[in-house]
Amino acid sequence: MRSEKYLKKWPTILLLSIITGVIGGLGAVVFRKMVAIVRILFFSSFLPHISFYYHGYNIGYIFLPAIGSLLIVVIIRNYPELKGNGIPEVIEAVIFKRGEMKGKLAFLKALATSITIGSGGSVGREGPIGFIGASLASALAQAFKLPSETKKLLTTCGLAAGIAGTFNTPFAGAMFALEVVYMGVFSINLVPIFLSAVVGNAVTLILLGEGGFEVTLSSQITYNHVELPLLFLMGLIFGLLAAYWAKFIFWLTDKFEKSRAPLPFKLFIGGLGVGVIGMFFPKYGILGVGYEGIELAIAGLLPLTVLIFLGIGKMLATSLMISSGHSGGIFAPSLYTGALLGAAYGKMLSILFPTLEINTAVYALAGMAAFFSGLTQAPINQILMVAELTRGYALLPCVITSTITSFLTARFILRGSSVYTLKLERRGFRIKTGRPIVLETIPVKDIMTTNPIFVTPQDRLIDIEYLVAHTGHDCFPVVNEKLEVLGIVGIKDFLNKPQRVKSLPIERFLRKNYAVGYLNETAHDAFEKLIKYDQNLLPIVESPECKKLIGVVTKRDIYKAYYRALQEMYIEE
Questions:
Q1: What's the confidence (pLDDT) of residue 186?
Q2: pLDDT at position 328 over 70
Q3: The pTM is what?
Q4: pLDDT at 206 > cutoff 60
Q5: How confident is the model at residue 161 (pLDDT cuts 50, 70, 90)?
Q6: Residue 264 confidence (pLDDT) above 90
């Protein structure tokens, strides 16, 4: 019976993974075409009409992102969940919403982000592409009324397909989805996710050719092993930089959100700020995704001062766009910043150590991987991506050195958070990278007993002994006449007590230091309280102000919920 079910399920899963890969790849291609069309409209058709030169600078560049910002006001106002890069929303859907996303958001995300990027907004397209693939895959899964574990899986497959198609890196695309969404690698889920990534990449290559990733890389980039300590130091620096950039983005976001200015004004100011920065460097990737700047940095064609100004300028421009409420990713801007500042670091080393014959391209690629890994807490993805982009493994030692060092440095500063999870934490979700999220996804209200057995202060310990023997419970809430919780009592309170003590009322044995839970908490919150206060039962009350008993949660309830939730993370059974 089990083998029949297994044979029926896997072909279906694999077929849906292939379909999801096709959908994710097509979504990526269509979105990129939309960006290209909008960019032509703004930079080739519109810019000549507003161009005005002052001391050699085209003032017209200032207004392009600002005008694009005004065009997306209606979309962002009606669908505020489209703000930002979209990856946190995919994580939220998979972990907290049974893999369910609205299909129409894919089109709206594509429209808002294509206008933002096409008009010169300093954001990436990779996060939105992943969001588009995930939401289309989720819509497919919901249309077929698939179980929640399959919806979660296919939503993740859609994300992997989009990322893989963007960079022509199927392994890195799949690993990004696993590291960022699943917070780790689950062997049984690898198969459909990798399959979707490969298919998504194939669709992109068929329709766009070899230009899937618009940066030309040489496969003959080499380095000297004596440079590893220098790469380790770069990892430390970039880990610090990535962590504090993430903090800065959300600090600036708070400033915009607390402002009483209307949304159109916020978006306009963000776009205007990017236009001012981009006016000084119109051909180096500040305006738009920025791949042209990455290519110049890897090729070693930019001087040291320009590399530093561009790296810092991109960070500031992207911060303005994201914090002011635009729709766009942080993937490409982080690669851009890492590549340019990494190249700058390499050039400084070549000045300090001329005999080492330092290759700037090594530091650009290692810096790109290190900075992104620190920011997103997804190191394996970047290690694989560099290997796939360079079509070889020669650079792996230096990339691993800088990437892991940056990852651990940023992890220490961000305390296990990433630029993606920080957004969710601000919404009240308790989520950290690097470990599977299970108990945090289970609301207390879903596992609590709503008609619990309780006792009153006037009951005796011998009555508790009787309840333990006849109910199987070893702990009970103690309530007054208004059903307000006064404490808990259990087997520990009467064990090995003489008979005369057991005849005494419970109120003499109430624990003064005890925990209660609330409906808005999760099973993880409840379990932490049970461990901290050494309780087997947690009374659930209405609120901190009103301690009226509405249910109880036991350790056994949490264990059962954990097992059920863990099963839903896999597709084997």
A1: 59
A2: yes
A3: 0.86
A4: yes
A5: very high
A6: yes
At residue 485, the 3 state secondary structure works out as strand
> Do the strands 537-541 and 517-518 form a parallel or antiparallel pair, or are they unpaired?
parallel
Q: What is the mean pLDDT of residues 552-566?
A: 89
List, for residues 288-312, the tens digit of each pLDDT value.
888 899 999 999 999 999 999 999 9
Helix (H) or strand (E) holding 475: strand 475-479
Phi and psi at residue 495, to the nearest 5°: -65, 130
d(CA 38, CA 117): 8
Contacts of 469 by beta carbon, 8 Å cutoff, 6+ apart? none
The DSSP secondary structure of 530-548, one letter per residue, reads HHHTT-SEEEEES-SS--B
Q: How many CB atoms lie within 10 A of CB 54?
A: 8
Residue 18: how many CB atoms within 10 A of its CB?
18
Q: Residue holding tokens 């500040």? A: 286
**Among all chains, which residue has been given the structure tokens 């995930």?**
134
Please report how the helices 170-180 and 379-390 are oriented relative to each other, as an axis angle in degrees rounded to 10.
Answer: 170
Distance CA 146, CA 306 (A): 52
Amino acid at residue number 433:
T
Distance CA(466)–CA(408), nearest Å, equals 54
Task: Specify whether the CB–CB gap between 474 and 461 falls below 8 A.
Answer: no
Contacts of 186 (CB under 8 A, 6+ apart): 178, 436, 569, 570
Q: What phi-psi label fits residue 300: left (phi over 0), alpha (psi between -120 and 50 degrees) or beta?
A: left
CA 82, 373, 319, 27 torsion: positive or negative? negative
Strands 549-554 and 537-541: antiparallel
**Among 305, 337, 339, 299, CA closest to 319:** 337
pLDDT at 570: 65
Compute the distance between CA of residue 513 and CA of residue 484 in angstroms, rounded to an integer: 16
Output the pLDDT for position 501: 74
Q: Rounded to an integer, what distance in angstroms lies between the CA atom of residue 133 and that of residue 156?
A: 9
Q: Distance between CA 314 and CA 335 in Å, rounded?
A: 10
Q: Indicate the range of 46-50, 231-235, 378-382 predicted with least confidence.
A: 378-382
